[in-house]
Each structure stands twice: as structure tokens, then as C-alpha cells.
Design brief:
Layout lengths: L3 H8 L3 H8 L7 H13 L6 H8 L4 E6 L6 H16 L2 E6 L2 H5 L6 H17 L4 E5 L16 E5 L9 E5 L1 H14 L5 E5 L5 H16 L9 E3 L4 H13 L4 E4 L2 H13 L9 E3 L5 H5 L6 E3 L2 H17 L7 E5 L2 E3 L10
Parallel strand pairs: 1-2, 1-3, 3-4, 4-5, 5-11, 6-7, 6-8, 8-9
Antiparallel strand pairs: 10-12
């Protein structure tokens, strides 16, 4: 097995210099760094992470727990974590709980989900990770992890009631406010809305943001123009029909799938989206860009969520201090496409 000593002999450089480069430390010229890295590749050097942990007490490895890697938000958050770890010379290990695959959108079995979470944390700790990033599959309250007080944990795309744990979310209340203001700015005053289920934090926040924008512009809120959906495409079809018949000139859907259902109804019934009615969704799913007409939507700051969570955790590890607990909200971004920018706009 190739060691730092062998690389030192091969390059005729000191062990201290080789160690600095292989451990990502500064104070070495670019030319010397390149010489050492080339030698490490040629000699097939592999760092001994266990030895590094025993020497420093730190593995420079983060544990990442995803509630479900198949849900649309997880891949981009994890990718951002990977990029940030690479920039900071950290490794990462992933545990996938598969909660959506196990339970769908229905409330999970509490005891079972607690068991899965604690088993995942214990498994990662047994592999000597320095801290843990926990990624939710929606913005719900995660199971308590207070029994792992010795571990630095940061939550992303979910909520925790542990005041010592920071959690990073996006501000969908403000995003819904901005969407409604955008439509009002186009002259729409009868704005229909298709929400998600009302036991969802997202639905409540987006409904509140919508109402606040109406209030700001002295437009009375009409409950008859708000229909409670189920996140699926089919309800968008039926609710789109109902809202259009009620005279809505614009429709705001709480996700892109339901907005696509509204688009389906309009296409089937000769309603020109963008001209006869404005339509906007939420989440910036791939389907929004490939729809005809292209669907305006709200892009979530997924990469920023992953980057922010990783920076908070690694800063806490570098400073040997607990991260500051509490909520961190990041702004979303409206992406306007054809469905709100027709000829009448």
C-alpha cells in the first residue's frame, strides 16, 4: 500500500509537505502541489480515513440522511452538498430512508419512522462521521433526534422542534405573495387558486401569501375561487374547469402537476393559456418547461438549501462549536414563461 512516506521518497519532497497537500492544507506552491498529486495518482495512493480519524479525532466525513432520494427535491440538494463537500475537502456518506416509497403522502407510521431515523443516525455514527445533514421529502416536522446530543445535526427541507438544531427551508409564503402580485400587475383581480391539502405546511403558507397580496392591493378575498386539491394532475383538470366557469382570469396552482391538469382542460376545450387565462404553477418541475405552452412556475432554491446546510455544519465542525439553532428561510424565484406572458400581457 502506498503511504505518504513512499510519495515523499518518490518526489524527493518532505513528508510534511506531502502531508499538507494530501490533507488539503495551504502553504504549498501550485507546482509542488501538482507534483505531489501526480505522484499520488501514479502510485495509486488511497488515504487511510480511519488512521486520520484516530490521529485528529475527525474523519472530515459528513453523514447525509435523505427521507427519500426519489422525491424531486432530494437529488439537487444532495448534489449541492457533494459540490460543497468537494470544495471544503470533506467526504460524505448517504443513508436513504425511502419514506415516500414506504408511506406515500399519507402520514408515516410514527414508531416505524422513528426507528428508521435513529438506526440511520447510529449507522452513520458507527462509520465515524463528524456530523449529519438530514433532508426531508417535504416541509414537515421530523422525528425528534434529541437523544443524539453529542452529534452536530443540520436539517434541510424540513422542520425540527429542537431549538438547538438549525433547519433550512424556502419562503413559500413570500413566493405565493410575489406570484399573486405578478398576476395583479397584469390586471387580474379574479385569481383562482388550486391548493394542496390543507394539512400541508406548504399549502397553508402559500394560501396565506396569496391572501396577503390581495389585501395589499385592496382586492377582497373570494373563498369560492380557492379550491383544495391533492397535488395530482387530475384535480387540476376538474378544478380548472370550475374556476374558469366562475370567471377566473388567472389561476395559481400550488404545484406544477395540478397546473398541468388545468392546462390539459384548457387545451381540450379551446381555452388559450396565456391569452384567455393566465396560469402559473410551483416547484419548477421538468414538466413545466416541456408543456405547451410552457408553464410559468416558481423555482425552489434547492441547490442553495444544500449549500447553506453544508456550510453551517462544516463551519460548526471547524469552529468546534454547536451550530445556531432555528429557522433559515431562503427566497424562491419566479420563472415566467408563455402561460403568463401571452399577447394580452
Amino acid at each position: 500500500m502506498t503511504t505518504i512516506r513512499k510519495i515523499s521518497e518518490y518526489t524527493n519532497l518532505s513528508i510534511a509537505t506531502v502531508s499538507k497537500v494530501l490533507n488539503g492544507k495551504s502553504g504549498v506552491s501550485a507546482r509542488t502541489r501538482e507534483t505531489i498529486m501526480n505522484a499520488a495518482r501514479e502510485l495509486n495512493y488511497r488515504p487511510n480515513l480511519n488512521a486520520r480519524f484516530l490521529k485528529s479525532g475527525r474523519s472530515r466525513t459528513l453523514g447525509v440522511i435523505t427521507e427519500d432520494f426519489t422525491v424531486f427535491n432530494a437529488p439537487e440538494i444532495v448534489d449541492s452538498i457533494a459540490v460543497t463537500c468537494e470544495e471544503k475537502n470533506y467526504h460524505y456518506l448517504i443513508e436513504n430512508l425511502r419514506l415516500f416509497k414506504r408511506y406515500g403522502n399519507t402520514p408515516p407510521n410514527r414508531a416505524e419512522s422513528e426507528r428508521l431515523v435513529h438506526e440511520a443516525i447510529n449507522d452513520l455514527l458507527s462509520k465515524q462521521v463528524d456530523g449529519i445533514l438530514y433532508i426531508g421529502y417535504h416541509s414537515h416536522m421530523v422525528v425528534p433526534v434529541s437523544e443524539h446530543k453529542e452529534t452536530k445535526i443540520v436539517c434541510a427541507y424540513c422542520i425540527t422542534n429542537d431549538s438547538e438544531i438549525p433547519y433550512i427551508l424556502y419562503n413559500d409564503r413570500k413566493a405565493a405573495f410575489d406570484v399573486t402580485e405578478l398576476l395583479i400587475g397584469y390586471g387580474d383581480r379574479k385569481i383562482g387558486m388550486v391548493t394542496g391539502p390543507m394539512d400541508s405546511t406548504h399549502s397553508l403558507n402559500r394560501t396565506q401569501g396569496h391572501q396577503e397580496a390581495l389585501f395589499k392591493h385592496d382586492i377582497p378575498y373570494n373563498p369560492g375561487l380557492t379550491l383544495i386539491g391533492d397535488w395530482d394532475r387530475d384535480c387540476g383538470y376538474s378544478f380548472g374547469e370550475e374556476l374558469i366557469k366562475k370567471g377566473a382570469t388567472a389561476i395559481f396552482c400550488h404545484n406544477d402537476l395540478m397546473a398541468t391538469g388545468v392546462l390539459d382542460y384548457c387545451t381540450a376545450n379551446g381555452v388559450t393559456v396565456g391569452d384567455d387565462i393566465r396560469l402559473i404553477g410551483f416547484d419548477n418541475r421538468d414538466i413545466s418547461a416541456f408543456s405547451r405552452p410552457q408553464l410559468s412556475t416558481v423555482a425552489l432554491p434547492l441547490a442553495e438549501i444544500g449549500r447553506t446546510a453544508t456550510n453551517i455544519l462544516t463551519d460548526a465542525l471547524e469552529n468546534d462549536a454547536p451550530p445556531e439553532g432555528g429557522e433559515i428561510l431562503l427566497d424562491c424565484r419566479i420563472i415566467e414563461r408563455e402561460s403568463t406572458k401571452g399577447t394580452r400581457g
